[in-house]
Amino acid sequence: MRCEDARLQIGAEPGSATPTLEEHLQSCAACRQFREEMHTLDVNIRRVLERPPESAAAGAAEAVRVRRLAQPPAWRQWALAASVTLATFAVLALWLLRPSETLARDVVAHVRDEPESWLAAQHVDATSIAAALRGAGVELNVTSDKITYAHSCWFRGHYVPHLVVQTTQGPVTVLILRHEAVSRRHEFHEAGMTGVIVPDGTGSLALLARGAGNLDDIAGQMQHDVHWLPQGS
Amino acid sequence: MRNSQPESPVSSISTRLPGAHAPAQLTQLFESLRPDLVRFAHWLARDRAIAEDIVQESLLRAWRSRDALKEAGAARAWLLTIVRREHARLYERKRLELVPLEDVVETQASPRLTEPDGDLFTLRHAIMRLPIEYREPLVLQILGGFSTEEIARELTLSPTAVLTRLFRARNKLRVICGMAAAPDVDGEGAA
């Protein structure tokens, strides 16, 4: 494999790993560095895309142009009528479905979108942990030598701390959800992962581990270690 | 390919859609995916109001075609595809005459106030400035979870062309983020 081919593959699909590519990377330090840079870039691209762009600065030109050129959209009336219908059904659905299941679904989807979080092996420094916690209104007693991943992630309309803590059961993902209040403990299993959401402070903690296992002890420990600061501090 | 057969992440939610007998569950499923759809449409259209219009129209189309959706686990990819097509359709319908983005960005209040991380701010603007032919496959890949082959089918391009566009998109972002550009690759091949 030529460097040009390797970089095309890495640049197009940074997460791809074919035997041919791996063989090339073993003997090409430049391409290895290129892949590391692309991995870092891709993590940041994902973080950016998970938050919608700023309309005011970006799409204004197109927006103005669309609105200027558009005829009065007749379908909007139908859309409005359908919205009312959909909203009615949604209200009914809320009676049928527990919110915690939707939250669990979003937690799993978020973690699946950041597979690299499980792979982190090096301890995160205190500055990075502080950055992840910044604005979340919490302090953490966990020593940094147990944390191998710490990011502030866009989740359900807020930036929330996304941590991976090394435990005797292996890595456990912890999302500190100040804005997601739950009334009681909720356990779930999906895609080879086990999770639990527990109420804590004014919100909740979501914990997720690969494989089966009991996360209650770890959840209890995190409830002890997470200190919720007063709103606005 | 991460989302070719996406599964409901929560096993306690039935993955089998109930059809016309339980529209509330289908509505709830659609509504649960709405934030993802709006975000996706927002990155394509770069305007919140247009994105919401696109999603609204897409959900109506999806509702009318709901019999085509057999499994709840496939709903996200199915709806994202509808949103992408609705976005393309909207812009074809309006026959837009775009003005350079730079002309507008420089006249608007800086959104830096809402973005604490300078690097991500730079990257965010860089992605917004990507031409649609590069931004669209990138968003489909990263936000949509589509494989190269699926993107190629959706955009009626060859897989090689998609790979080239994805490479060029990231290469442009590399440069804007201060990294050295990789040598460009040959053309996109047959579409």
What does this structure look like?
The complex is a heterodimer of chains A (233) and B (191). Chain A has 233 residues and is α+β, with helices and mostly antiparallel strands. Chain A has three domains: 3-49, no CATH class; 56-96, no CATH class; 99-228, no CATH class. Helix content of chain A is 48%, strand content 23%. Chain A has helices at residues 3-12, 19-27, 29-49, 55-58, 60-69, 75-96, 99-112, 116-119, 126-133, 216-225; strands at 138-140, 147-155, 158-167, 170-177, 186-190, 193-200, 203-210, 226-228. A six-stranded antiparallel β-sheet of chain A has the order 2-3-4-7-6-5, sandwiched between helices. In chain A, strand 2 and strand 3 (158-167) form a beta hairpin. Chain A is globular. Residues 55-71 of chain A have low confidence and may be disordered. Chain B is mainly alpha-helical and 191 residues long. Chain B has two domains: 1-97, Rna Polymerase Sigma Factor, Chain: A (Orthogonal Bundle), CATH 1.10.1740; 101-178, Winged helix-like DNA-binding domain superfamily/Winged helix DNA-binding domain (Arc Repressor Mutant, subunit A). Chain B is 60% helix and 0% strand. In chain B, helix 1 (23-45) packs antiparallel against helix 2, helix 1 crosses helix 3 (75-94) and helix 5 crosses helix 8. The relative contact order of chain B is 0.11. Chains A and B meet through helix 1, helix 3, helix 4, helix 5 and helix 6 of A and helix 1, helix 2, helix 4, helix 5 and helix 6 of B.
Distance between the terminal alpha carbons of chain A, to the nearest Å?
55 Å
**The CATH topology of the largest domain in chain B, please?**
Rna Polymerase Sigma Factor, Chain: A
Largest sheet of chain B: none
SS element count, helices of chain A: 10
How much of the sequence lies in strands of chain B comes to under 5%
Structural class of chain B: mainly alpha
Mean pLDDT of chain A: 80
Report the strand count of chain B. 0
Largest contact between protein chains?
A-B, 69 and 82 residues
Broad shape of chain B: globular
Helix content of chain A: 40-55%
| Strand segment count of chain A | 8
- Topology pattern of chain A, helix = H, strand = E: HHHHHHHHHEEEEEEEHE
Helix content of chain B: 55-70%
Strand arrangement within the widest β-sheet of chain A reads 2-3-4-7-6-5
Backbone shape of chain A: globular
Top-tier CATH class of the largest domain in chain B:
Mainly Alpha
**Whole-angstrom Rg of chain B:** 18 Å
